[in-house]
Hints:
Order of helices and strands of chain A: EEEEEHEEEHHEEEEEE
Order of helices and strands of chain B: EEEEEHEEEHHEEEEEE
Strand content of chain B: 35-45%
Largest interface: A-B, 54 and 52 residues
Structural class of chain A: mainly beta
Strand order of the largest sheet of chain B: 1-14-3-12-7-6
Radius of gyration of chain B: 16 Å
Distance between the termini of chain A: 8 Å
Strand content of chain A: 35-45%
Number of helices of chain A: 3
Number of strands of chain B: 14
Largest sheet of chain B: 6 strands, antiparallel
Distance between the termini of chain B: 10 Å
Number of domains of chain A: 1
Shape of chain A: globular
Structural class of chain B: mainly beta
Number of domains of chain B: 1
Oligomer: heterodimer
Strand order of the largest sheet of chain A: 1-14-3-12-7-6
Amino acid sequence: MTQSIVQNIVVPRCSGKALRVKKGQILRVIAHEGKQVVDLTFLNADNYQEHFAAEHSSVLNSLQGLGGYYRLTHLYSKPPYENIMATVLDDVVGSGGRGGERAGHFMMCHCSKRLLNNLGFPGARTCSDNFADAFAEIGLRQEDTYDETIFNVWMNSWVGEDGAMCSEPPLVEEGDYIDFKAKMNLMAMISVCPDETSPCNDFKAKSVQFQILEGEA
Amino acid sequence: MGMKCLQEFTIPKCTGRAFEVQAGQTIRVVEAEGKQVASMMFFNAHNYKEQFMAEFSGGLNFFQPPELGKVGSHYRLGELYSKVPYENLMLTVTDNKLGDHFLGTHCSRLMMETLGASGHRSCSDNFADALREYGLELGDVYSPSVLNVFANVRIDTGGDGEIMIQPPRSEKGDYIDFQAQMDLLVVVSACPDDITPMNDHYCKSVQIQIHQ
């Protein structure tokens, strides 16, 4: 059995997008321009109130020996649901293929108006704006659903010993990808992070390619 | 002018409780017995969709305008903010001698199952019980990530970023004060986890005082 590409799109730099992924399909996120972070969260496509809880998943994966705050194997929905929404199948950065002291993703919050204002960039575009656009695509408002802790794909950040928030440029290289297999019908909510003020995107916001795949590799 | 204690109550071990405070009032969370975590959620009393966002507050405390300097970090909060798109200051920490707390998820049904204790009571149960009194349920809470007061938890700085749970350092009588910057619904769970070192393997009560 072969794998076929059902959908293949490039999400432009600094923008958001909602993508439907059916149960059993694979969402492939491709760093086709290199070092760029993708802020990713998921909704149950049949019940938008059931959504991905990234930080909660970090603790569950940590207790299971399957990951932590810098890598996940199972993506769980928030309580009271706590279902596996997706599993990570192929993750060259997270599995150490690009080196680094840590797995290379970050299960935390996305950037916002107040954060960029604090950093001295009032009015700069943020992931909050991108998500607001993505939610509007499916007729939702940002305040109606979702956990602000999300899967920051390829965000090479960590929490320091003293609680400091630390960041280095992503480890990901051009053409690297990560695969998420949907365990239920999903709406993938995407922000191609617009930050150019920190090492998060290596100081230059880029576009990202997404594919939806069907069948076995 | 001194502070006047308006209300004082004990949250029995392994239970939750919701209560309202007005803008300007101070919530004091006291270790009634010591080494016990109080997990806390906060809602705008006039709009339950505006909810405290724990990790996000950690980031906002660490990244402050240079002229103001840092007010906190992931392990020591000075200011508590609501989630996007609101991003309002909900509370300020006014007394925090010990400093230990963890911005992270509360324990849940699946977590207990993962720990080999299927069916064990969790903070999810405590929160669900307490929220019911105000017509809310766990499904109405956007993020399970809360303020775990007195929790002595760290995230590994390397590898997969695993969680490391140690017994609290808090002793009987230790407290933390929060001043409300808006009218709030406060929900507290006296964490019922006796499986991990979170509460030093023994669940206890927590005391709450509201001061004016």
